[in-house]
Amino acid sequence: MPKRKASAQKAEAINNEDSIPSAKRAKTQKSSSTTRRRGKGKNNKIVEEKPKKPDLRALLLDLAQAPLDIVIAIFQHLEPYDLLCLARSTKDIRRMLLSESNSHFIWEAARANVPGLPPKPDDMDEPAYANLMYDAHCHECLGLNCANVVWEWKMRLCRSCEKDLRIQSDELDFVPNPPFVTKEEFLELIPYHSMVDVKNVTYVRPAPRVNFWLESIVNDYLEEYEREVIDEVSALEWRTRLKAEKDVLNKQVKKCQRWHVRRLDERAYQRELLLKERRLE
Ligand SMILES: [Zn+2]
Questions:
Q1: What distance in angstroms lies between residue 161's CA and the mean position of ligand 1's atoms?
Q2: Widest Cα–Cα separation across the chain
Q3: By CB distance 3.0 to 4.6 Å, which of 24, 133, 151, 164 could disulfide with 253?
Q4: pLDDT at 152 over 70
């Protein structure tokens, strides 16, 4: 698959600073709170002192100054989402975690800390993959709480953006050049998103499906095709490679879908537990 958005994905993955989680910060702050009695006598009340805000920026700057082997040892115990947030924190940590040659083993260790996390696709770098799996922003409009991921396109898209971007085959007007494959065969070989056609569902036959493509992906593959295919032999090689890539992608999509659903279920369960605990307090 063309490495169409590797650098863009990495930049987007890291630059999206709004998504630095506040939950952990809140937790740290809460645990440091103390109580004290105000006034004397019977009616004195126990009041909660305002927790002192830890200076996270300073802590992170200190961390960046620590010996490298210690920093690496700490980072290898984290998860990819933690690394993603750290990479958005200070310039030094960002530089360290974005340097592919120096940091890939940290990210690999972090991925191994998450049971069941599907393997990273070869055409994605580590920050982009962590961003896709964990960050809750729509990649198009940057809207929050986006749980919809189009795994075939490796994009997190809110329903509205997905609707705006997706395109059906009859809206795509092109002929592969040189014409060793038809438009239909070309579209079948590249990644597309398939959905149940809800308007035509009946109980008497299997639910029909409708396929959607992303124009930018189609264009990337067309460019690649025109670059690589010059005769029947290279067309056959191209077709064989794309079929193999499609098989790998389909397996990856299934694993990611299962992992994502499980993660959403776990998060919903945790939220429910938290609400119950708060009601009991
Ligand atoms: Zn959106």
A1: 4
A2: 95
A3: 151
A4: yes
